[in-house]
């Protein structure tokens, strides 16, 4: 397994839609394991493939420290809200270090996709796992969480990004 470099805000790969995965082979299994190791090393609860420069529709997650207790991956994820209830909570991103903001998401979602062997998977998730599914699928669609913010919060986040040590024009 290899820890891969996480791409940072401003990298065009983060605003590019990832492509569906059609081949389920040893290379995909290696990618899943590398992504889990990279996420663990960075201290995240989720990581989408384009965050490491790979434009394929897969994300990994680790909510094992919460009541959800889930850790794994979803390939070619598709989600839909279950009901209209929303949650608001602090959200951050490994590709935008040190920046977090109160972000509104659906409370409960239903997600379907595949595992690394091509087997269908689905789940209904609430709380942190629901937030993770929405956040990581947004990444795969080329959308960063700051786009989810109100105009005022987005303006504040952009100011903080511009003033951060890691940001380069």
From TrEMBL:
EC number(s) from the headed UniProt entry: 3.5.1.88
Cofactor: Fe(2+)
Coiled coil: none
Domain of life: Bacteria
Record keywords: Hydrolase, Iron, Metal-binding, Protein biosynthesis
Active site residues per record: 136
Catalytically driven reaction(s): N-terminal N-formyl-L-methionyl-[peptide] + H2O = N-terminal L-methionyl-[peptide] + formate
Cofactor note as given: Binds 1 Fe(2+) ion.
Signal sequence annotation: none
Sequence positions that bind Fe cation: 93, 135, 139
A molecular function (GO) term: peptide deformylase activity
Alphabetical list of NCBIfam families matching this protein: pept_deformyl, PRK00150.1-3
Family membership noted in the UniProt record: Belongs to the polypeptide deformylase family.
Record function comment: Removes the formyl group from the N-terminal Met of newly synthesized proteins. Requires at least a dipeptide for an efficient rate of reaction. N-terminal L-methionine is a prerequisite for activity but the enzyme has broad specificity at other positions.
Protein name, as recorded: Peptide deformylase
Originating species: Corynebacterium felinum
């Amino acid at each position: 397994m290899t820890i891969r470099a996480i791409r940072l805000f401003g990298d065009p790969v983060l605003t590019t839609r990832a492509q569906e995965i059609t081949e389920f082979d040893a290379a995909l299994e290696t990618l899943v394991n590398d992504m889990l190791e990279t996420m663990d090393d960075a201290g995240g609860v989720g990581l989408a493939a384009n965050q490491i420069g790979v434009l394929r529709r897969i994300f990994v997650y680790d909510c094992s420290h919460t009541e959800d207790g889930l850790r794994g991956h979803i390939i070619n994820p598709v989600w839909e809200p279950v009901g209209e209830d929303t949650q608001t909570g602090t959200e951050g991103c490994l590709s935008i270090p040190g920046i977090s903001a109160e972000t509104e998401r659906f409370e409960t979602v239903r997600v379907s996709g595949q595992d690394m062997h091509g087997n269908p998977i689905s789940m209904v998730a609430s709380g942190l796992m629901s937030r993770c599914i929405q956040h990581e699928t947004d990444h795969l669609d080329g959308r960063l969480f700051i786009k989810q913010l109100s105009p005022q919060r987005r303006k504040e986040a952009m100011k903080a990004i511009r003033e951060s040590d890691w940001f380069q024009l």
